Amino acid sequence: xxxxxxxxxxxxxxxxxxxxxxxxxxxxxxxxxxxxxxxxxxxxxxxxxxxxxxxxxxxxxxxxxxxxxxxxxxxxxxxxxxxxxxxxxxxxxxxxxxxxxxxxxxxxxxxxxxxxxxxxxxxxxxxxxxxxxxxxxxxxxxxxxxxxxxxxxxxxxxxxxxxxxxxxxxxxxxxxxxxxxxxxxxxxxxxxxxxxxxxxxxxxxxxxxxxxxxxxxxxxxxxxxxxxxxxxxxxxxxxxxxxxxxxxxxxxxxxxxxxxxxxxxxxxxxxxxxxxxxxxxxxxxxxxxxxxxxxxxxxxxxxxxxxxxxxxxxxxxxxxxxxxxxxxxxxxxxxxxxxxxxxxxxxxxxxxxxxxxxxxxxxxxxxxxxxxxxxxxxxxxxx
Length: 383
Description:
Layout: E1 9-13, H1 14-25, E2 33-34, E3 36-37, H2 39-44, H3 47-56, E4 62-64, H4 67-75, E5 82-84, H5 90-98, E6 101-105, H6 108-115, E7 121-128, E8 136-137, H7 141-149, E9 154-160, H8 173-191, E10 197-201, H9 203-208, E11 216-217, E12 242-247, E13 250-254, E14 259-260, E15 266-267, E16 272-277, E17 294-297, E18 300-303, E19 313-318, E20 328-335, E21 338-340, H10 342-348, H11 353-358, E22 365-370, E23 373-378
Parallel strand pairs: 1-22, 2-11, 3-4, 4-5, 5-6, 6-7, 7-8, 7-9, 9-10, 10-11
Antiparallel strand pairs: 1-12, 12-20, 13-16, 14-15, 16-19, 17-18, 17-20, 20-21, 22-23
């Protein structure tokens, strides 16, 4: 047996990615476009390949969290404009100015720092309408607009905001936040700044609040096939793009009463076989799946037996196992007629799919599939 054939791997369905993009586009108004959020390794799915695929499908704007992520996309031959949502250094800002990368104004101090560069910088001004994380308050809009006008090198290309509770059923916060945003937009207009772009809607807002006045929407989790809240139905027929797989590497017969894994939290009820799979929390299997998560083997579900360890999980294969060493084991993804969805994993762990996907280890090989064939293979980091 070649041990490298059984290493953990992440598989990314580019077909499902394209499908999800189509679902999002079906919710847009006339003239609206998609600004794809590919921050943090495209939510663990691999930013370069995801962005390249989306760009080939006509997506013409991307958003990332940090300047180094924008640099990585440019190194990966992504040509479209990129918005950095977070902070950056002076050197990073100069690089952005020279590489068609937009920067966010999140504070009045950002304006002075960018103005001092003496370079032509395109910026998107973040209006904090209720998130209380980043951005200027709507009440500061007039003062910040005047400040921006004092620096001819700064071009205000866009205004944007972010909804804090768009996923909450029957929320009124979206309407309230949007009213604050419009007031800030009007303040900028009165000062003589009329940006050509507006973007405000995240995935939940796209699904529930059609804000057609905005030029771009900013989907994140929907692109990757998951819901903003895994316990709710947002009416989007999405398909998960990420799978986490390995193979059975050992089948061990154990007597009745045998404790399994750390702490003996699972005890064999009869003489049985325990199957070992080389996936653990170091790869992205949450430890909270201990004794309740599932694994697909041969199209059948098996509950994780005992504590999830750093590099392995075990399942009880039964006294007459219908599996063998070398069989594929799926902790997340499709096998046969069944699918362990990232949203299902998130529900079991009382979290959201964002966290599940972002915890997929970068040291795992990623295989990108199109039409059932591997089109890109990225080796995991060696450390």
